[in-house]
From TrEMBL:
GO terms for molecular function: ubiquitin-protein transferase activity. One of its GO terms (biological process) is SCF-dependent proteasomal ubiquitin-dependent protein catabolic process. InterPro entries: F-box_dom, Kelch-typ_b-propeller, SCF_F-box_component. It comes from Selaginella moellendorffii. It comes from the Eukaryota. Residues 24-44 form the F-box domain. It holds the Pfam family F-box. This is F-box domain-containing protein.
Amino acid sequence: MDYSLLQIIEEEVLVRLSAGLLHTRVRLVCKQWKDLIDSPRFKSLHHKYHSGFKGGERSPPIILGLECNGSLAKCNPFGQERDKDWIVINPLPELRFYLLSCAGGLMFGRITSNKSYVTLNPLTGDLKVLPPPPLEPLPSTAIMATHTSRQRYWICISYMRVVYLYDSSVGIWQEVSLPEGWKHHCYAKAINNKVYYYCRGLDHVDTGLMGVLSLDLESLSWSTEWEIHGYSTPSRCCIDFLVSPALEFFKVTVDSMYHLSRLDAASKGFVEEVGLPLNMKEGMSHVPSCCYKDTIVVAGPKQLEVLDYKTKSWTTHKNKKFSRFDFLFLFTSSLFDPKH
């Protein structure tokens, strides 16, 4: 496609706008702008502009909170709005959609009426029905990742020593086994084309072995990021695992407080970083968390806690509409088409 100077200028201007504004308003102006915004080239440029610079994303993500009954809500603790409370959303208003994971502006979930599994862009409404996965995924076992080009995505479902992997460029599920001596320990986080698993040794190999393994989704190769031998299970069991954009690893434990411990590479041990008092009488057996830049967000009972990891200071946002969430997800709208 030959580009005139006018087209180049239009592209340079439009690429700076948010995905929401582009899709809901700008692409309706004329056919030329619609074709430009819908083109794979523009979608790739838009993603690179909004995420590929030194400061990180130009538009901060929202947080999605998932209740055990499937109800979904959104909150914007990183934006400039004064109201930080949750708003109930339904990505597919005409259907009952249960979210399992999300990444790159896409959602992976189940349509409960016909039990089909789909990837969905809730902004554009684009949807792709996936082949049935080998086993029924849960939010605790499913993880979604996207390529930096936003033209390819993966879905991983883990069970014991196997990761079932869906690659959008291939369109089928395949099996990837964990390295010898390891089994999955329920927690996984994705950053671009890698998934980080919090694992432990097989019982007959080394019950005191704990570690973080990463799976490169393009090469399907494993790497050991961190490990510890001789580990004995503490009184506070791990309930969550976090990975920061700087590839720092944390485990979360809870008693009457929320405890955040860093997985230290130098000492090959756990270094407790910070604690937060929580009212566990509200029925909280699980306290979901997520990382964004230098902040860690915790969905406590009837409140949202935001930790500035550099200063170790907490900010509290009262939650008037929901008492608890079981899972938290970071989500940023995009023009990513799940069918491509």
